[in-house]
Write a structure and sequence with these properties.
Number of strands: 10
Order of helices and strands: HEEEEEEHHEEHEE
Largest sheet: 6 strands, antiparallel
Shape: globular
Strand content: 25-35%
Number of domains: 2
Length: 233
């Protein structure tokens, strides 16, 4: 085992794992989970590259109904999605970067910084989203989840337009309480995002869909940014 791999193992064992346990997650078989009776709400550490000089890794998340697992009680691996998940993502999808996020750990006096930074990302981005999705899944019962809005192809089309305007993509489009809830790594202080999302909201509201009367835009932590109302909304 190289020095970088030894430091990676030590960082996960002595720093990352204890920090996640302090946040309320349990660790088992190399992954971390939130206690829940009907779902596996899991977080994993996925090495992307290992060599003699460095280890690069990212964080994965998944939510799976226990009833959907072929083997009852068999804990899934968040690093190896099977298609049975209600949700699966890498942490970069939850952060205001619209890109893959990874941390590089290499020998040197500041080797622990990468581990500490990944713990902070879990605390501020991954764990709140995992808890939110677990609560929503639990509220709707085992094996079900909040209704999504826009097909994958439609969402890809909208996100292509956002990319043209250099605006972070829509991570989720969901129907919640007579509103379409759009989630993305946006900021209230970004006038371009507001302008482009205003156009998106107006387009959605003009469809005349009886299932919603409002379009709400929230950031990756679920904080309300902008609210657009249609007739009767």
């Amino acid at each position: 085992m190289t020095a970088a791999q030894e430091l990676f193992a030590e960082g996960m064992r002595e720093h990352f794992a204890p920090a996640l346990r302090a946040l309320g997650l349990t660790d088992q078989r190399g992954s971390f989970g939130l206690p829940a009776p009907d779902h596996w709400a899991l977080l994993g550490v996925l090495p992307l590259h290992r060599d003699t000089d460095a280890v690069r890794y990212t964080v994965t998340l998944s939510l799976t109904a226990k009833a959907d697992r072929p083997g009852p009680g068999e804990r899934p691996d968040p690093n190896a999605p099977t298609g049975a998940e209600l949700w699966h993502a890498r942490i970069g999808e939850l952060m205001p970067v619209d890109d893959e996020i990874c941390w590089e750990l290499s020998p040197g006096p500041r080797w622990l910084v990468a581990v500490e930074d990944s713990v902070a990302a879990v605390r501020h981005y991954a764990l709140p989203e995992l808890r939110r999705r677990l609560a929503a899944a639990a509220a709707t019962g085992p094996g079900s989840y909040t209704e999504t809005y826009l097909s994958p192809a439609e969402l890809e089309e909208v996100n292509a337009a956002l990319l043209t305007a250099a605006v972070a993509r829509i991570q989720r489009a969901e129907l919640v309480d007579k509103a379409v809830l759009l989630t993305g790594a946006w900021s209230r202080s970004d006038p371009v995002a507001l302008e482009v999302l205003t156009g998106v909201a107006e387009g959605l509201l003009s469809a005349g869909d009886d299932r919603f009367r409002q379009v709400r835009c929230v950031d990756s932590l679920g904080r309300e940014l902008w609210l657009f109302r249609g007739p009767g909304g």
